[in-house]
Amino acid sequence: MKVVLTGANGGVGRIVQQLAPEFIHAELVAYSRQELDVLDQEALMECFLMQEPQYVINAAAFTNVDLAQSESQAAYRLNADCLEGMVRACDRTGAVLIHLSTDYVFDGTKRTPYTEDDVPAPINTYGSSKRAGEIKVLDYSRGVVVRTSWVYSRHSRNFLATVPALMHSQSGPLYVDTFQINSPTYGPDLVRALFSLIKGHVESGLFHYTNSGGGCTRYEFACKVREMILHKKPSAVLAPILPMGTKIQGGALRPAYTVMSPEKMGRFTGIAIPHWQAGIENII
């Protein structure tokens, strides 16, 4: 079996390459944006015809939520338009396309976890562009969409991954947002779920994957990180964590609640879904 990975230099792409030998008995062929421009339909077709993969994991994406508002054309090109060529190349070679999407396809008005049956209603350009891409993939007979959220790992550069360093380096209090409730997702857990789909011979469908535990705010996540650091090293000198009293102004609108249920993924793959607090051990 052969698996082609696009977006190899991104956060998820790097983890896919690290963990592939442990989970799938297959050849993984990984392409960065420089090696394979997913916006070039001819290049995609040529590559897939040459490689003849059984599965394609598309981790290429425009992920800057705020920048997507001002650069909507670029966001749509990378999050939606490129999938026309990718689907066409997969269809020509018979490959299953596994495409990563986001909780930001929802408007955040629910107060119970979103399931795959809930109707998307994005409130910003990033979410709209990702939803447009989902539709293209799900219209393909061998298309798989996996929605996830707040993905982090030891080597990520987002807030969740940098909280420990910020607490060690900051002299004053660290003020953290309490507005959004999402599900943190430890990157290696997400990648194990993707490989479990492949091992289960997934052919099509829509799945949610995040860590379990009902979600949290960034403030709650930061407090848990601080608590776990002090449990391991009581003498550690850490900045106090304080809730941010007002919502950050400017930039794209964010949905207030986008916790997603990973139950369908668990049923299909048979994997246990770790609690979001378990991933923290790997970054402190």
Strand order of the largest sheet: 2-1-3-4-5-9
Tell me, what's the shape?
Answer: globular
Q: Describe the main β-sheet briefly.
A: 6 strands, parallel
Helix content: 25-40%
- The total number of structural domains is 1
Task: Give the topology, please.
Elements: E1 2-6, H1 11-23, E2 27-31, H2 41-51, E3 55-58, H3 65-70, H4 72-93, E4 96-102, H5 125-138, E5 143-148, E6 151-152, H6 159-169, E7 174-176, E8 185-186, H7 187-199, E9 205-208, H8 218-232, E10 241-243, H9 263-269
Parallel strand pairs: 1-2, 1-3, 3-4, 4-5, 5-9, 6-8, 7-10
Helix pairs in contact: 1-7, 2-4, 4-5, 6-8
Q: What do these coordinates show?
A:
By secondary structure, the chain is an alpha/beta fold. It has one domain: NAD(P)-binding Rossmann-like Domain (Rossmann fold), CATH 3.40.50. 39% of the residues lie in helices and 14% in strands. The chain is built from nine helices and ten strands. A six-stranded parallel beta sheet has the order 2-1-3-4-5-9, sandwiched between helices. A two-stranded parallel sheet has the order 6-8. A two-stranded parallel sheet has the order 7-10. Strand 4, helix 5 and strand 5 (143-148) form a beta-alpha-beta unit. Helix 2 (41-51) runs parallel beside helix 4 (72-93) and helix 4 runs parallel beside helix 5. The longest helix is centred in the first third of the chain and has 22 residues, at 72-93. It starts with a strand and ends in a 15-residue tail after the last helix. The model has no long low-confidence stretch (mean pLDDT 95).
Please give a handful of descriptors for the protein shown:
284 residues; 9 helices; Rossmann fold; six-stranded parallel beta sheet; two-stranded parallel ribbon; alpha/beta
